[in-house]
Amino acid sequence: QVQLVESGGGLVQAGGSLRLSCAASRSSLSINAMRWHRQAPGKQRELVATITSGGVTNYADSVKGRFTISRDNARNTVYLQMNSLKPEDTAVYYCNAEILTYKWEDYWGQGTQVTVSS
Fold first, then answer.
1. Less Cβ crowding at N or C end of the chain, within 10 Å?
2. Are 73 and 28 contacting, i.e. CB atoms less than 8 angstroms apart?
3. What does each C-alpha distance from 37 to 17, 59, 74 come to in angstroms?
4. Are 16 and 82 in contact (CB under 8 A)?
């Protein structure tokens, strides 16, 4: 069984930065797209950023120019560098990856809280 383990969340003041990490629990995996999502209280989960296996990235309009998604394929890890944080970025952040075990499946991390104070 594969698990995605997230780290890096916390409390930061507006304008500050945080870096989230999400690592797969096993090595030598075939991983397709990796994504970060977030869910604020009382709101639906939204897609924040995507990176393909080839390194092509895509971002929600709300984070373009502030957030950067990257991955280390050797470590089966995806990162989210968040700069110029705003209070509206406060949410639980989840990583998600398409991983091949017996078949291609979506795996999710447990979530990490990011709180931005004004």
1. N
2. no
3. 17, 11, 23
4. no
Per-residue pLDDT tens listing for the chain (118 residues): 899 999 999 999 999 999 999 999 987 789 999 999 999 999 999 999 999 999 999 999 999 999 999 999 999 999 999 999 999 999 999 999 999 988 999 999 999 999 999 9
CA 48/CA 62 separation, integer angstroms: 8
Tokens 């560098």 belong to residue = 81
- Say if residues 8 and 112 touch (Cβ distance below 8 Å): yes
How many Å separate Cα 27 from the centre of its chain? 19
3-state SS class at 85 = coil
Contacts of 95 (CB under 8 A, 6+ apart): 4, 6, 20, 22, 34, 35, 36, 37, 78, 80, 108, 109
Quick check: 79 and 93 in contact, CB under 8 A?
no
pLDDT value at residue 1: 83
